[in-house]
Amino acid sequence: MNEDPFVATAMAAAEEVLAPPLSIRRGASLLYQVTVDNHLQIKVNPKKPMRGHSAFQTDLCVFETLDAETSIPRVVLEFKPGLSTHDVLIYSAKARKHKQIYPYLRYGLVIGNEAKVPGKFFTHNEALDFCVACSSYKANRLYEIISRLLKAEVQASRQLEKVAFGDTAVHVFRSDVDLDEGIGKVV
User: Which domain does 82 fall in, by range?
Assistant: First the structure.
């Protein structure tokens, strides 16, 4: 199965559920490194990342507009028809690189031809925050799952931003393994 129908469904769900200052973009590039040259000049424009210039392209990315010149990435959705061990390793590495620049970023996979998240995801993942296996969902159910997921991930990103920049104190941390509880059981 082609990934495009899933991308289109996720895009439509995001456009319906996200309101300004949030928006979604297809094919947005995000920085994976910021380097200074031997004159201590930054070699990339942090406000306009370009693929091939220390930036990777993403399938879908939720952004929050802070002002006329600044939008920050909140949630990345990468789409794969199936999931191989190689995919988990590569996308986990990409997520880790992006999170070095954007410590509040939430990053995950949406896989089209899997009815459940495969064990290899749990074995090989190090930096991905979520994974959705879509083949057992009807289109309208996938729409609902993506809508709920995006709301929860934007909220998590905003909390991580507060923690990352010292705006909130944290006394207990735990990685949340919500599984299907927060977004609904498969019907």
Answer: 4-164
